[in-house]
Amino acid sequence: MEISGVYMVKTVISESLENSVSYQEYVELVNSLVEISSTTGNEKTEAMANYTMLNQRRMKRWDKMVKLTDQDKAKIQGFTGDVTWLVLTESWCGDAAHILPVINKVAELNKNINYRIVLRDDNDALMNEFLTNGGRSIPKLIMLDNKTDTVLNTFGPRPTKATEMVNDYKLKHGSLTLEFKEDLQRWYNKDKGQSTIQDLVELLS
């Protein structure tokens, strides 16, 4: 059964990769959706379309502003593996808008990292294999070894520090409030992608 299960996961990943797009293609998709006040995903509401518009602005800002230290650049450029970073996301996802541009900055530094993106609601089978605490949380990065087609590791839906903030808040209050979500957005702005960079460097090590 275990061998069958592994084969099934590989098949699901392979099919999702065939439907994947580059980061630039994803940005173009988001731009086109904003033009028609729409969104990705199954829930095409006005609220979700507004989140997509907000996230377009966030992504543009991070595309320009994310900086890496020389030390981090050296670690990334020194990676000698051959991997694909397959990321599940949706255009309305606030965490993704802060994280996907950072992933791109890291992947651009090493030709051995193939960065591909798929939409969660179009890839149910893949999402169901990579749940977070039983939930369909995004963004979710799946790190694949291109030579063996095996899953090496995962990252997401948030950098480690943000995950700790979320877990601590849920422990005290039961669920995330609008006020906390706004605080989290401010944390992302203050952090400037550095926590995500550290987690990605750790993946490569």
TrEMBL record:
Pfam families: Thioredoxin_9. InterPro entries: Thioredoxin-like_sf. Gene3D superfamilies: Glutaredoxin. This is Thioredoxin family protein.
